[in-house]
Batch of 2 targets.
Target 1
Amino acid sequence: MPKLERDGEVFVLHLDPDDENRFHPDRLAAVEAALDEVDAAAGPRALVTVGGGKFWSTGLDLDWLLSNADRSAAYLDRVHALFARTLASPVVTVAALNGHTFAAGAMWALAHDLRVMRLDRGFFCLPEVDLDLPFQSGMSALIRARLTPATAHEAMTTGRRYGGGQALAAGIVDAVAQADQLLAAAVERARPLAAKARPVRAQIKETLYAETLTALRTPTAR
Amino acid sequence: MPKLERDGEVFVLHLDPDDENRFHPDRLAAVEAALDEVDAAAGPRALVTVGGGKFWSTGLDLDWLLSNADRSAAYLDRVHALFARTLASPVVTVAALNGHTFAAGAMWALAHDLRVMRLDRGFFCLPEVDLDLPFQSGMSALIRARLTPATAHEAMTTGRRYGGGQALAAGIVDAVAQADQLLAAAVERARPLAAKARPVRAQIKETLYAETLTALRTPTAR
Amino acid sequence: MPKLERDGEVFVLHLDPDDENRFHPDRLAAVEAALDEVDAAAGPRALVTVGGGKFWSTGLDLDWLLSNADRSAAYLDRVHALFARTLASPVVTVAALNGHTFAAGAMWALAHDLRVMRLDRGFFCLPEVDLDLPFQSGMSALIRARLTPATAHEAMTTGRRYGGGQALAAGIVDAVAQADQLLAAAVERARPLAAKARPVRAQIKETLYAETLTALRTPTAR
């Protein structure tokens, strides 16, 4: 399960190092509680999210979904809400991509303000086209709002797997780092931005991403 | 007239090597029939479009339009439909730009998934501003959806002629090649993507380009 | 006060060299009159805007606004109208950023067709997040329409100060120049584009920026 630690003004949300970090409802609840704690904290603060093993997150928990098909719309709404609150957060968020970042995991990474990716291993990938899974409107809007037209097109319509250097060249991540320096690099980017965690920053993001947030907040058809 | 050939999983639509490949209704009918054949084919497949002479396509057939002014709205709808079906196609499309790619020809190239351009000769150009021709809403939406803001602005408001290297730098094309290697380079890009020709890919593109496709499918005012 | 001069086909609007060039209503009136003169001129023409001291423009006149709170909505509408007419202008406009370009000044610069920035001193900056000032919808739409998603996000949500080289790398400006060559560089870019000042260019920009212009032209809530 995720664990929240604090390093001065930087909160670090450690995703499970022994897990793919799929969005099982219990994991979502733990992430939501961690974000609630960051939101409730006063004063300058930033947030880094990081895993410890081969995965950052591989997105939707398809096993759980198959066993709970009657709850799929509510589940998707909950995942969309995670994307929306991250995208609209006044707190600067930095995803330290220590490993595979796939599908809805990749979308959550894009909802962060910044991404730093491990250079030697792991892929950023939207494999939906190969899995016969279309994107929900809100997901599509989120990806398009954060990437250049050419990168969004390639990532969404070919399922390309981007290694760290390729993700940097495509503008998917903002920096790369060696595996053993990844967390430090992400914290170093987050710390000087801790003072930006002001209510106006949420207002600015609500206006900048108005259409995307509306799409993410529209309930999934039942 | 255009001629469709097949090279394994890659269809190659040869545009007329002795012609500017303007969109005369007869040419549109032949292109539509070729696209129908590609759509109807089963299994993995991709499409490369290429000319053979100095031109890839110079767009609307203004001579025909002047003689058929009463049919201009239906004609524009048909051209917009070509753009829309190319943009939304599940089959990966690669335009091999062997020569001048102008105006609505340039827009059709942008509707393809990828563009490879000849390095030594030929221009990509939207000359509308110099011809006193405004862009239809759907055309404007298409260009903006496929280029960065700065490139769309420059291309549409100055009529700049981009050679191969300049088009690559501006993000208009994805690769350049020597003239005698152009078709091979395009086929090489298309072949590994043949397996992506799945119905879900059309769904993904419908969502990604929803506003653009709606604009292209809105009938021209009569 | 601003002063309009003419150098062949290029008008040069000299902003006040001894001033921050905030948008006091009197300054707005002088800029509007200069733009009226450029609009009314016949034939090929382009426009360069430049200051002479440490500032290009630092945007809204907050001192005046504090003393005239009852007129703030009309004032914002007037500033938005300046952005809209610049963005939609058929005349090619080049901002020669000789010094600090902040807040609504930075937005006005983005409404120009092109920006050339002094290399050694001065910053482009949207400091709103640090001043607890949200962006109006039209302002947000303008910035997003002119920059890549990553640059708009960083500029608007972190208040980063971009020097000339950084602004070039981020795609905020199109070129940089030494201070003593800045105006000449801007004029050199503008002159060959003077012939583009045709009514159709305004039509093309109205379609390209339809949503942004609608947002800028929507009256501020009173």
Target 2
Amino acid sequence: MAPYIATTSAPVNIACIKYWGKRDTKLILPTNSSLSVTLDQDHLRSTTTSRADSAFEKDRLWLNGVEEDIKPGGRMSTCIAEMKRLRKELVEDVDASAPALSTFAVHIASYNNFPTAAGLASSASGFAALTASLAALYALPCPPTALSLIARQGSGSACRSLYGGFVAWNAGTLPSGLDSHAVQVAPETHWPDIHALICVVSDTKKGTSSTSGMQRTVETSSLLQHRIKNVVPQRMKDISAAILARDFDRFAEITMADSNQFHAVALDTSPPIFYMNDVSRAIIAVVEEYNRVALLPENGGKRKAAYTYDAGPNAVIYAPAANMKEIISMIVRYFPQQDAFKDPFGLFGAAGAGTGALVSGFNADVAKIWEAGAVKGLIHTRVGGGPRVLSSEESLLGENGLPSKTA
Amino acid sequence: MAPYIATTSAPVNIACIKYWGKRDTKLILPTNSSLSVTLDQDHLRSTTTSRADSAFEKDRLWLNGVEEDIKPGGRMSTCIAEMKRLRKELVEDVDASAPALSTFAVHIASYNNFPTAAGLASSASGFAALTASLAALYALPCPPTALSLIARQGSGSACRSLYGGFVAWNAGTLPSGLDSHAVQVAPETHWPDIHALICVVSDTKKGTSSTSGMQRTVETSSLLQHRIKNVVPQRMKDISAAILARDFDRFAEITMADSNQFHAVALDTSPPIFYMNDVSRAIIAVVEEYNRVALLPENGGKRKAAYTYDAGPNAVIYAPAANMKEIISMIVRYFPQQDAFKDPFGLFGAAGAGTGALVSGFNADVAKIWEAGAVKGLIHTRVGGGPRVLSSEESLLGENGLPSKTA
């Protein structure tokens, strides 16, 4: 008999309206709604294989080839238990012929195709891939929204990686969290023109983890409550409308304002939390200058790029595809690259991105030219789809039920 | 006949509750009240000599030996005109024998004893010294509160330099601004134990001027209004109570929170405004760690230092005098000094501050050791008194009515 096994991949997402603060730390219920863009799995993804077997002694999980401890009552344990519960309730209890997979232990192997050193949060794509692979293994008749309730309990922002395109995480109001799930605002096919440039920024300082940092903000910031009650609800409506209208200028305005406000409430925390450093600030100065030029009436009067920063110094710059060559040239000029720019969309041809260039009218003095390595890598990607079920050829578990691939 | 001439000096002040935003840009009426500590003129001061003479053709002003243009309707012009008006109304109109100095032109020479390169705002001490010297010249029977109404129209925070000690600037509510003036919360003699260490931080980036920056925050920050209405009023009460009770722990807690919140609303501005850089952040990390150790029950459970940052990267660290040696040792350890520490209070003796040291239990990893020059100077001072009238020997104008000293 073929083993009960499934492999899926899930995407990274980067928020435009930021999640910062939990009203329930166990269920991971947020203090405000958030909204993100799902990035293309062709470039960044977590892949997870799950296998259920009556011969397995206990649930085990390997991350990038290294076994992780599944702590009882911890986040991974909760997700696996919830998926087994759904298997029992939605499949086994209604179809007596279905194998009792919910009673079997599982082995799970997960890989990220981006290095941890890239500073990209892997918990969102990781928990989304875990949830999606167990859903495939268990043949659950669940829409992504239902699965997002479980991924959320692994890592809040993971719930948004269950959908492609433009995804809202509604904060909800129920103590149970049953209304705190992801919904798709628009699929990637609605606005495939949205590209992203991830600028991986070197940092010597170890940052505050988002889990502890956000609760310190909840406890000590006098500005956060105002943000939650009076700012985010309107921004969620406004950016959803901008996405539906494919209005990049408005999308960019809100995205940048919300990134800055998230970092403002982090700074309004005691002790204060800083995620951006001087390189991050310089990228902001450069993008703001690029938009200042773009906003001139003779240049069309609309913003052409939007930066956003999560809980770290890396920038993600969203822009319509047509602007990406200018943006990459600009970034490369101020932040010389040690390695040649990997050009997945073939913007630069054989000559490569070179030493960069600025658009006409740009005030070059808004930032200095940094030493090579200040931005240690650039990843060009775009909006993409939700989790994918992969063929058995891509399985990460061997016939012996152990990882077939090491990190 | 002796010339009509007066020389005064005025102090620098550094706010604990920050002024950021005007409700009237012409009268310089703030959106919120603020509170500062006046620093000792023995270390930092502006000195101004004013002379009225019927032979002078027009009002003239020299700053550090360089003549400045007194623009009609500008801030200096407004202050001089207001002082002449007070001379007429309060002196000449009530005493017919008083010389009609209000009809004479004035020559004014002003010097700062700290270099512009130190990055310390000289506008507060400068306009306070201007106002105080004209008040002495005109023999105005005015308390500092009345003079503060005029200094405020030169530079908002100048109104707080008319008093020594701990000084509030009440925002007021009248459109005329007549209730927007400084009041002394407590004189320097109430709590002379408060010392200050100014850490002059190198910065490659030219910052946004506070005049333009604060109005951009008023126009674009969604958090500022909450700060104005719901945060600052309570903090003004709380820090005043802490000062009256000489409660440094509470004073420090509020001072640091308000510095961080000021920079948070600057960041919540579009485009965002950054005044602190990576060195500023590192100083915060070091002071926070120093307080973390101090807050341990076995160490007394109270904060021992408070950082605050104005519209620039420089830190000012307030602390009781007894902690200053530890603090200077700590700062010197992380930020090696190119020049020997000037030790005005003789804390270190002949050996000097050396290469620094940390208190027991301090986690040294909270910051890296920076290259010499990252903090390019340290100034140790303390709370001090209000403007002083100086003798004619300290006059900055020669007998010919022109500056006797060049920069």
